[in-house]
Each structure stands twice: as structure tokens, then as C-alpha cells.
Specification:
Oligomer: single chain
CATH architecture of the largest domain: 3-Layer(aba) Sandwich
Largest sheet: 7 strands, mixed
Strand order of the largest sheet: 3-2-1-4-5-7-6
Bound molecules: S-adenosylmethionine
Strand content: 15-25%
Distance between the termini: 50 Å
Order of helices and strands: HHHHHHEHEHEEHEHHEE
CATH topology of the largest domain: Rossmann fold
Number of strands: 7
Number of domains: 2
């Protein structure tokens, strides 16, 4: 079993183990009962929101980034394999973290360039050797203020599940404002089966992690994603499965 903790093990749990046992996440779970009365466990444990905490605890923040880049479900490769990105000039990965998704996509599709948009401290820690000889650019900022214009495809991978419906609408509204009509948006998320008797039990534990970290954040069903899109001037196109637990929800700016 300990081989699974090696960084070179296929589907390594090394990065997940470092993340799950970090104080930020661990202490929040100890306060889980406050969620029963609409409190946010992380807020109560640390007196601050999750991303502010990560900003103030760089070791844990970088462990989180590593976990995202090496998630055992290999969602980045799965999305690169499942979708045809040819013909896109620029792909903007909003909340793109260390650019793992873009590296996989740009390796498979030689023409597009990529842009990672993420928080200041994440972009400041972006690895120089991850820029694919200049094909990947980075831009720091908050998607609650703005989203960069000019891309042909926008990605939101495992971003919306960190936020409440209202916050998701704010993020999507800023994406829409940056996009020309007809531009594609790909929301890459796990899909929660509304009936727990039929759903994948692991997804409910992820949903509970979101509750512990963000209170009102959650995993969502397809219908819930469609509702978010309708209210923010996007048209749902199709749901594309991948070999990982992540689905691609393709939408266009309407
Ligand atoms: C769950 S991670 C997903 C990372 C990446 N998309 C992936 O799938 O590996 C959420 C990302 O959203 C970023 N993020 C959080 N708040 C943000 C904000 N206000 N503006 C831009 N990015 C933000 C985080 O830094 C993190 O990289």
C-alpha cells in the first residue's frame, strides 16, 4: 500500500495524502457540526475563507496546487483526449492553477496557445518550465473582478464546485462579458446524481469536502449546471463523458 504514496506510482496518492492531512482541511472537518446550522466549518476553524487561508499558508497552497496537478483521476489528460480543440487559436483556462490541463491539451493539439488565469499567489508560483516554450502565458487576477478577453475556448475545470450558485453566476457573468457570441465555454466537473441511492458514493464525500471548506459550495447535477448557464446568457450544447470522473459540459455564449 505504501507504494501508492510514491510520487512515481501510477495514480499516486502522495499529493492527495499531503493535501488531505494539511491543517487547513483537517481542522475544518473538526468543525463540521456548524454546517448543520448554515455555518462554514473552515471559516469557523480559521476565521477566514479557504483561498485567503491558502494565500497566508504558502506550503499548504503549493501542496494543494500539486494535488490539483497530480489528481489520481487524471482528469487533465482525459479532457484533452475527449474534446477536439483543433481550430482554437487561444484557450483560456480560468482558475487553471499550474496549467496541467493546458499542457496536456497543447501537447495533443499543436496549434493553439494557452492562457492560465488564476489568483496572484498561484500565478507567482507558476513553474517556468511549465510554459511549453512560451505557448502558455499566465495572467493574475480574480474571476470575481474580470476574465481576460480574446480566447476562442474558455475552460472552467473543477472551479464552479468551489462556489455557491450566486458566486457561480458572478463567475459565469464575467466569463460571458469576456466572450464573443458563439465562443465556447467548457465546464469540466464531476456530475452529482441527485438520488444518493443511485450515485457514486465517492462524489458525496467530495460534496462534503466542499461543505467543510466553503459552506455553500457543492457538487451539482446536469440540471443544476444548465440552470446556471441559462441565467448567465449561455446555451447548453452537450454533455461529453471522459475516461475520468469529470464530464465536459459544452456551452456557447448566446
Ligand atoms: C479546485 S482548483 C482547480 C484547478 C484546475 N482548474 C484543475 O482542474 O486542476 C480551483 C482553482 O480556482 C482558483 N481560484 C480560486 N479563486 C479564484 C479567483 N477569485 N480568481 C481566479 N482563480 C481562482 C484556485 O487558485 C484554483 O487554482
Amino acid at each position: 500500500m505504501s507504494r501508492l504514496l510514491r510520487t512515481d506510482a501510477p495514480g499516486s496518492l502522495h499529493y492527495g495524502a499531503r493535501f488531505w492531512t494539511g491543517s487547513g482541511s483537517w481542522r475544518a472537518w473538526e468543525e463540521m457540526d456548524v454546517a448543520l446550522t448554515d455555518g462554514t466549518p473552515h471559516q469557523v476553524a480559521w476565521n477566514m475563507g479557504r483561498f485567503e487561508y491558502l494565500c497566508q499558508h504558502p506550503d499548504e497552497a503549493r501542496a494543494f496546487d500539486e494535488f490539483m496537478a497530480h489528481f489520481p483521476d487524471d482528469r487533465h489528460q482525459a479532457v484533452a483526449d475527449a474534446y477536439d480543440f483543433s481550430g482554437a487559436g487561444l484557450i483560456a483556462d480560468i482558475g487553471g492553477n499550474r496549467g496541467e490541463a493546458l499542457r496536456r491539451i497543447l501537447t495533443r493539439f499543436p496549434e493553439p496557445r494557452g492562457l492560465v488565469f488564476d489568483r496572484d499567489d498561484v500565478v507567482a508560483a507558476f513553474p517556468d518550465d511549465g510554459r511549453m516554450s512560451g505557448r502558455i502565458a499566465t495572467e493574475a487576477g480574480s474571476f470575481f473582478d474580470r476574465v481576460p478577453k480574446g480566447a476562442d475556448v474558455y475552460l472552467l475545470m473543477r472551479v464552479l464546485h468551489d462556489w455557491s450558485d450566486d458566486d457561480c453566476r458572478r463567475i459565469l457573468t464575467h466569463c460571458r462579458a469576456a466572450m464573443e457570441t458563439g465562443t465556447r465555454l467548457l465546464i469540466c466537473e464531476q456530475i452529482l446524481e441527485p438520488d444518493p441511492a443511485r450515485g457514486d458514493p465517492f462524489l458525496y464525500s467530495v460534496d462534503t469536502q466542499m461543505l467543510a471548506m466553503f459552506g455553500t459550495a457543492r457538487e451539482r447535477s446536469v440540471a443544476e449546471f444548465e440552470n446556471l448557464l441559462i441565467g448567465t446568457r449561455f446555451a447548453f450544447q452537450r454533455l461529453i463523458p471522459t475516461t475520468s470522473s469529470v464530464f465536459i459540459i459544452e456551452a456557447v455564449a448566446a
